[in-house]
Amino acid sequence: MATDILSTIHNQMGSFSKGQRRIAQYIESSYDKAAFMTASRLGKMVSVSESTVVRFAVELGFDGYPSMQKALQEMVRNKLTSVQRIEVTNDRLGDQDVVSMVLQADWESIRMTSEALDRRVLDQAVEAILRAKNIYIVGVRSSAVIATFMSFYFRNIFDNVHLVSSSATSEMIEQMLHVSQGDVVIGISLPRYSSRTVQLMEFARDSGAEVVAITDSLEAPAAKRADHTLLAKSDMVSVVDSLVAPMSLVNALIVAIGQKKKGELSRIFENLEGIWQEYEVYERVEP
Fold it and tell me: What is this structure's pTM?
């Protein structure tokens, strides 16, 4: 339904009541804003009751307004320009405190990620990473932050980690030139989905590697190129991509791997602590 909700609205326009028609026309003209409005706010925007908005959603075939709203959000999330993001955020914010709204949205993203994450798939991804000959980590644009974070900790655990980074797809493919069966490629792809990450994941799969995707939906481009898909709720705050839930998921992945390599990991970090102390990597803080 998410991909054709606008055509469904258009096709059913003649059967709507006067109030429902106002809702439909507003969604057609401003679906990017409507997708992030509560039923009450959407009703006020077009001068109808909240119950009329809910009945409109049911009329379209949804089990309620939240389902229709989710369909709209999935449709627009990867299409919004930076300017549209600012407009949506201004509408969502209203008179609210900015800090409260942003932190509440991040908390909600983590909660939804925890509830939706398939633990069986996480276990499969952990096992694939543990048996990999080589581990390639791919993430560009804002997702590069997560890729770098993951690489930092993976390099303390494994000696076969490659962070693939560049501004050119051809150079990134060159860094993965020898990827083959037995290797694992982890692709981090969140809205707005980078075409470079998806292309590299496709290249890895064609080369026989096992592919793990960290993305926000099973319908996302990266999920369709992956053997194992780990879902993390991704939201947008103005021009900022909120990476809180995906980063938390990566934390869980690192800890799960650490649990599997518990004895070996203790020895590794004992050695690292000695090196860090000898070379004064960290400032000493007196109690």
Answer: 0.70
Q: Give Cβ neighbours of residue 112 (< 8 Å, ≥ 6 apart).
A: 233, 245
Model confidence over 211-233: pLDDT tens digits? 999 998 888 899 999 999 999 98
**Which of the residues in the chain have pLDDT under 70?**
1-4, 76-96, 235-241
Task: Classify the C-alpha dihedral 126-127-133-138 as positive or negative.
Answer: negative
